[in-house]
């Protein structure tokens, strides 16, 4: 409870606002958050999860983080440990998490990094498709201090069919470092 009050205070103190709303009753989904250009995205996302609110929000972290002295922190903030070893299928690990939980919203970056990308990653799309959960887009516009939520949608026939609408949503949104955003992905 105290954490939620802190994050709500932080949101107001930083003058962020919300455009859209989390769908009532949606307890299982992938929320793709972008453009991911800064570590501040994580801080702003933690605040947004309390303001919206999304009580079942989680994120992925390498399993080693959960074994160390700060493992309690990662668990307490919604972290889910995954084995990123190349022999393990990360998509399948996450689909299994969805299979064993009734309430699970997973926040992922569609770019998979804070660096400039030439194309989006496909993992989030495959997870949503295999877990049969919708995708919600959340655009963090640092120029307007606004978090914009999309309506949920289920993955279609292929990532290539869905990615144009995802890029259209994120392209005009300016991350903390706008030059690292998705504006250049239009037409790719």
UniProtKB/TrEMBL annotation:
<feature type="domain" description="Phospholipid/glycerol acyltransferase">
    <location>
        <begin position="30"/>
        <end position="143"/>
    </location>
</feature>
<dbReference type="InterPro" id="IPR002123">
    <property type="entry name" value="Plipid/glycerol_acylTrfase"/>
</dbReference>
<protein>
    <submittedName>
        <fullName>1-acyl-sn-glycerol-3-phosphate acyltransferase</fullName>
    </submittedName>
</protein>
<keyword id="KW-0012">Acyltransferase</keyword>
<keyword id="KW-0808">Transferase</keyword>
<dbReference type="Pfam" id="PF01553">
    <property type="entry name" value="Acyltransferase"/>
</dbReference>
<comment type="pathway">
    <text>Lipid metabolism.</text>
</comment>
<dbReference type="GO" id="GO:0016746">
    <property type="term" value="F:acyltransferase activity"/>
</dbReference>
